[in-house]
Write a structure and sequence with these properties.
alpha+beta, Ribosomal Protein S5, domain 2, Alpha-Beta Plaits, 2 domains, 5-stranded antiparallel sheet, 4-stranded antiparallel sheet, globular
Length: 294
């Protein structure tokens, strides 16, 4: 069992993965969660995470497939003794607050753990649906594995921890708005019922995502920033409700140096991802925002 479950960042593919397109994920070790018992049982009753876990346990027990794969009797016993998940992962910021919880529960209480990543993704999606209404399962998979990976329709390719090239720098730009995943995902699902939207999304947007992933992994900096520029325009076209008004200028401005942004997670708040090869210029540009460099 792991000691700690790290938060995650979906670098690319948060919506295109719904179409079984490629996505790229990395762990974010700045934020994490770990199991703890309280100093006293009285204190446990007031812990939000303990109560949240009890509701989650009830959901798991009512889902036949999940209840057979997890030792819920042991989970209930531990929760009654005050077990909780101590976490500093911001909620509503697209960093996997529910993903760490799902990964932690599976890691601690799975009757028999699977090493089939796609099978785990499906299982985690069922588990995380308790929090979001529906889930791809990719967030908990990242939090469970704790390694960078590229996910494709036919499997998961683990990447080395240092796969990112040194001249492509990534930052998290705080929108100061909590994101509500469920309505945004539902909006997108409603949009894709429109054949015209669906065809354009698959023919115009998805290839941009794939190009960003491939050129980043290959370290082709100029092609990467060119692809990112097209992706940013595509997010305004296809995912405008996911772009907050207070970051709209970052999406629409033409820059005289390599810099680009995209939504993170479901969008609609949380963090926006920024990419550059010039940290000094980007820092000046983002002076009015709180920024975390990865």
């Amino acid at each position: 069992m792991r000691d700690r479950y790290y938060s995650k960042v979906i670098l690319f593919g948060e919506y295109s993965m719904i179409f079984d397109a490629t996505a790229l994920m990395i762990p974010l070790k700045r934020f994490s969660a770990q199991w703890q018992f309280p100093q006293s049982r009285n204190r446990a009753a007031s812990l939000t995470s303990n109560q949240s876990l009890k509701r989650f346990c009830q959901y798991l027990s009512e889902t036949e497939e999940l209840s057979s794969l997890l030792d819920l009797q042991a989970l209930r016993k531990d929760l009654n003794e005050g077990l909780f998940l101590a976490s500093n992962v911001p909620s509503g910021y697209g960093l996997g607050s529910s993903g760490t919880l799902v990964a932690a529960v599976y890691d601690r209480y799975a009757v028999q753990k699977s090493d089939d990543y796609l099978q785990l993704k499906t299982l985690f999606g069922q588990m995380e649906s308790h929090f979001h209404g529906s889930s791809s399962g990719i967030d908990p998979l990242q939090c469970y594995l704790g390694k960078p990976f590229k996910i494709m329709p036919k499997g998961v390719e683990l990447l080395s921890d240092d796969f990112l090239k040194k001249d492509i720098h990534i930052c998290l730009i705080d929108t100061k708005i909590k994101s509500n995943t469920k309505p945004l995902v539902n909006h997108f699902k409603a949009q894709r019922e429109n054949p015209q939207f669906l065809n354009r999304f698959q023919s115009d947007y998805v290839p941009c995502v794939t190009s960003c992933i491939n050129t980043m992994i290959e370290g082709n900096k100029e092609l990467f920033f060119s692809s990112l520029k097209q992706l940013t325009k595509g997010q305004l076209d296809f995912l405008r409700p996911m772009v907050t008004d207070n970051t709209l200028d970052l999406f629409t401005t033409e820059y005289d140096f390599n810099f680009g942004v995209k939504i993170s997670g479901s969008g609609g708040g949380g963090y926006v991802l920024g990419f550059t090869d010039d940290v000094e210029q980007a820092s000046k540009l983002l002076n009015d925002f709180e920024v975390i460099w990865l």
